[in-house]
Amino acid sequence: MATNDMSPGARALLTKLDLFAKLDPQARRTLAGLLDRPQVSYERGQDLMTQGALRRDSYVILTGWAARSKTLPDGRRQILSFLTPGDAVGLFGAITPVATSSVTALSDLTAAPFAPTAIVRTIARSPQLAAALVWAAAREQEIMGEHLVSLGRRSARERVAHLFLELWARLKVRGLAGGDQLQVPLTQQIIADALGLSVVHVNRTLRQLAAEGLLAVKRESVALLDIRQLHQVTGFDEDYLMHHAMPQDLAAELARLVTHGPG
Amino acid sequence: MATNDMSPGARALLTKLDLFAKLDPQARRTLAGLLDRPQVSYERGQDLMTQGALRRDSYVILTGWAARSKTLPDGRRQILSFLTPGDAVGLFGAITPVATSSVTALSDLTAAPFAPTAIVRTIARSPQLAAALVWAAAREQEIMGEHLVSLGRRSARERVAHLFLELWARLKVRGLAGGDQLQVPLTQQIIADALGLSVVHVNRTLRQLAAEGLLAVKRESVALLDIRQLHQVTGFDEDYLMHHAMPQDLAAELARLVTHGPG
DNA sequence: CGACTATTTGAGGAGTGTCAAGAGTAGTGG
DNA sequence: CCACTACTCTTGACACTCCTCAAATAGTCG
């Protein structure tokens, strides 16, 4: 099955999973079967999923950004992760009946819906796709781990610099950012909620980094002016983003399964 | 296959996965085949896995505690998660050749080793086990998400109280803690590294909570003296620990797969 | 233009970190 | 059984990062 026969949702997910492995026809067929429903649109600020509410559909994001967040009873909010095109919303949604976090559109966005329980069928039908989904889960865990380091052990200055370097690296590898420029629909309040800081302090930190010539923040876009020094400020090392293909031994194991069947 | 025919590693993992679903014979056979190597021992302080080093075996922890952590170039350390019996070390280890975090024994411990690539074969052979592994991954993500909330938005006092309530809930559901007492091999330095605080401040916070009669900290053990008030301090809600079985619809989907095959 | 929303700046304070030193608490070896 | 060593834990004094409150400025969109 050629890429252009697939739905937009399948293509978006495929683009991401291709970072990890070139999916075989069986995997592509399974993927296409999963994502065969018409796409949906959300406006900025709307929830694709609400903390405490019953789960509905899962999605693959096609265009736009979203944030997964948890809110405490007194209103304090922590953003757990940013979701960009190709990322899944509620991939493991079938497992808990009630959502433990919210997913909110940060910009107008479009997404491809799918049934949460479909993930099991998907895993059973294509070992290669199963491995790719495990990879995607592992990658999310890596990113959350690096965020834990930021929140626990990095200064405000380091957190801000690290966030932009991460977003830049994530967008670049999927062709969504070029040069030192990136389009990000993030307000300072959103950055604050992601980094565990107050809006006021985020503002001061951004202005300080700008004054030092490290970056320039414009409305909904950021320019990284001195990437070398930004790396030094944070000790940024993009290994955790897992922008590389499957290791040899895993590929060999998979090939054996595909050839001889799972038995 | 009866439980007592299995290796200790398979039994430990099974005990954990049973929180989610009663595994069928096919799943149990697959699990037993995965964990058929002799167990290994580590002393307190030793690494089961070292950040920056090539990956070796993966493990299921049988007895004792471990911590997964990342260390910055200047020595600052952040603990990402605590691992207790039944938890897996490097479950997704086959996917990245180099370890992005360390796993260190917090007490003397024993573990059952397995080949990292075996996870793929496991997924292909038993859809039920695959679903259980996805559940385990989703649960880890939930716990990390709650830790992000702690580090980003909770005060020292709230973080400490929340940590002990979490550990207590996790141990109790596996029968490793009774009453209001829990055995934890945690020094104040380790608690500090987990909560993103300094040792000094952890000490002050613990003493304050003790002075208020909320908990009593003894050498390697903690007593939660006023659980109701501890819940109030933190707004603790254990839903995120996913101590419940598989939802109906997912169970139905799985049953269909097991009966009619993945085709 | 008017109503919002987002950004920016100032002043003062609370929460945590750092540095330093003393007191417990094992474990080790003579 | 007692010194000796190495961790831990505890406490005090002080500094600093970051937060809160408040208000002005700048964008954005109907």
Could you characterize what this model shows?
Two copies of one chain form a homodimer. Chain A is α+β, with helices and mostly antiparallel strands and 263 residues long. The first copy, chain A, has one domain: Jelly Rolls (Sandwich). Chain A has nine helices and eleven strands. Chain A has helices spanning 8-17, 25-34, 118-125, 127-153, 156-173, 188-195, 199-211, 227-234, 248-260; strands spanning 40-42, 47-49, 58-63, 66-71, 77-83, 88-89, 102-105, 109-114, 181-183, 215-218, 221-224. Chain A has a four-stranded antiparallel beta sheet with strand order 1-8-3-6, with helices on one face. A four-stranded antiparallel beta sheet of chain A has the order 2-7-4-5. The radius of gyration of chain A is 19 Å and the shape is globular. At the A-B interface, strand 5, helix 3, helix 4 and helix 9 of A face strand 5, helix 3, helix 4 and helix 9 of B. Chain A binds a DNA duplex (30 and 30 nucleotides) through residues 155-156, 187-189, 197-201, 203-204, 206-207, 219. Chains A, B: Residues 19-90 form the Cyclic nucleotide-binding domain. Chains A, B: Residues 154-228 form the HTH crp-type domain. Chains A, B: InterPro entries: cNMP-bd_dom (IPR000595), cNMP-bd_dom_sf (IPR018490), Env_Response_Regulators (IPR050397), HTH_CRP (IPR012318), RmlC-like_jellyroll (IPR014710), WH-like_DNA-bd_sf (IPR036388), WH_DNA-bd_sf (IPR036390).
